Amino acid sequence: MTDTTAHVVLRDVVRVHGDGPTAVRALDGVSLEIHPGELVAVMGPSGSGKSTLLNVAGGLDRPTSGSVTIGDQDLTTLDARALAKLRRRRMGFVFQDYNLIPSLTAAENVALPLELDGTRARLARRAARHTLDLMGLMDLSDRYPDQMSGGQQQRVAIARALVGTRRFVLADEPTGALDSHTGEEVLRVLRERCDDGVAGLLVTHEARHAAWADRVVFLRDGKVVDSTGGPDRAEDLLASGTV
């Protein structure tokens, strides 16, 4: 169930790459709110600013102007060390290529962010196995990435993004390297975690994937040009060439 208090708030965010006449305005006054329990999908043509939006929302890039707030913390006021700490503890990132460490088991991969943050290995592994169990992956906890299918690896990556107290998950085309059945399975897991109260931001180029979201935000030339709460409207906009 969606909370009425926004967990993620972007206000008038501008992100400019480069200087002078070659400068590119990747984001141009974007405002966005994401609530606990809500999955927001971002769509748009190549170069529209989708990945830049995700990177700014996750504190990987700083906005040129505007503000980004996670919970009660304004990211623009944090130095690099404090920002890295906040990302480790409160945000999780899911990428298309999984980014699992081949020499670590599923449980070790999921536990790694906690261990890097100072949690004792035994406690971190316990939390990792609990999260894998929530994902239906408990029987894979001792397997290495090359012993798992692509969909299983991506679900492990989602578990790593959600382990501990993280309440904001960001996914950049997480199904791009998967077949359609496996991709739907991964999106179902992400949807279930958001239904449990996590705030989610999903970058995708496929309307059928965006249909898992509560809301779809469309970008063009770094600006929000439409926002809809239903997959039918998404299909109409894509078919008409409006976005």
UniProtKB/TrEMBL annotation:
PROSITE patterns from the UniProt entry: ABC_TRANSPORTER_1, ABC_TRANSPORTER_2
CDD domains documented for this protein: ABC_MJ0796_LolCDE_FtsE
InterPro entries: AAA+_ATPase, ABC_transporter-like_ATP-bd, ABC_transporter-like_CS, ABC_transpr_LolD-like, MacB-like_ATP-bd, P-loop_NTPase
MF GO annotations: ATP binding; ATP hydrolysis activity; transmembrane transporter activity
One Gene Ontology cellular component annotation held by this UniProt entry: membrane protein complex
Lineage: Bacteria, Bacillati, Actinomycetota, Actinomycetes, Micrococcales
Protein name: ABC transporter ATP-binding protein
Residue ranges annotated for the ABC transporter domain, each copy included: 8-243
Source organism superkingdom: Bacteria
Keywords of this entry: ATP-binding, Nucleotide-binding, Transport
